[in-house]
Specification:
The chain contains nine helices and no strands. The chain is mainly alpha-helical and 261 residues long. It starts with 5 loop residues before the first helix and ends in a 23-residue tail after the last helix. The relative contact order is 0.16.
């Protein structure tokens, strides 16, 4: 981890300094992105207990996801802990990243409190929504002083916000047909974080070029389209294909086990 003297460099940070600092690394983007994508994939493929609609069910069942949220994000929190010699902008971004990791940990704690019978099922939706809205707020103010990176992070904030609104709507009324869209939106948050890692740290694009910004918008559209196609296809495979029934469809209560209390 490379560190620098705060006082020597003042309050500004250019793109080269951003990449040299301890925060905002290549792994720091695609690692969380992969984790968020895996969460959405788990919701789609593995979690039978959260599919029933119109009932007081949590956003997912079982211990795996809450423990993964807490364990993985605790590691991320530690990795983003700012050093006292980081650039001032890098120092601030480290705290921003830590805020999102803390919100993910909080969501895992809410899941566990629900399973212990201390919170109602729908608070698990609120825990995810708070995490997503924290990401929205953080990345709206995540300025790195170049157009390409600012555009990429603005679009990330928008995606966090869309996923947060869908999660709130589903938690308010699980009977509304938004579950599949919510999963796609959350998965796109993860996909876009991975794409951002490549754009900023591997693409070699000019960070201030309008051409680069244009490609950022194009890759963003492709991220939504590709994720939607993938999850729709997996949903068809998971639900049997020929039945014509999405995993959002109503099913008999006998197909499910009640959430642990």
């Amino acid at each position: 981890m490379i560190q620098h003297d705060m006082g020597q460099h003042g309050m500004g940070m250019d793109a080269a300094q951003m990449m040299a600092g301890g925060s905002g690394t290549y792994f720091g983007h695609w690692g969380p992105g992969l984790g968020i994508f895996a969460l959405a994939l788990f919701w789609l493929w593995f979690d039978r207990g959260a599919v029933r609609r119109g009932a007081d069910q949590p956003i997912q069942t079982g211990w795996l996801v809450p423990l993964a949220k807490i364990g993985i994000s605790s590691f991320g929190l530690y990795m983003e802990l700012p050093g006292r010699t980081w650039y001032p902008m890098d120092f601030m971004m480290g705290w921003q990243h830590m805020t999102v990791h803390a919100a993910i940990i909080g969501s895992g704690v809410v899941d566990i409190l629900h399973m212990r019978g201390r919170l109602p099922a729908r608070t698990t939706y609120m825990g995810i929504a708070v995490m997503l809205f924290a990401g929205t707020a953080i990345f709206l103010g995540h300025h790195n002083h170049d157009g390409m990176s600012d555009t990429a992070h603005f679009l990330l904030a928008v995606t966090f916000g869309v996923a947060g609104v869908l999660t709130l709507v589903e938690g308010w009324n699980p009977g509304l047909p938004v579950r599949s869209i919510r999963r796609i939106a959350v998965a796109t948050v993860g996909v876009w974080l991975i794409v951002i890692a490549w754009i900023i740290f591997r693409s070699g694009w000019d960070p201030e070029s309008p051409l680069s910004e244009g490609w950022v918008w194009t890759l963003y559209a492709w991220s939504w389209m590709g994720t939607a196609a993938l999850f729709t296809g997996l949903d068809i495979v998971r639900s049997g294909g020929a039945t014509g029934r999405s995993s959002d469809a109503e099913v008999a209560p006998a197909d499910f086990e009640p959430a642990a209390r």
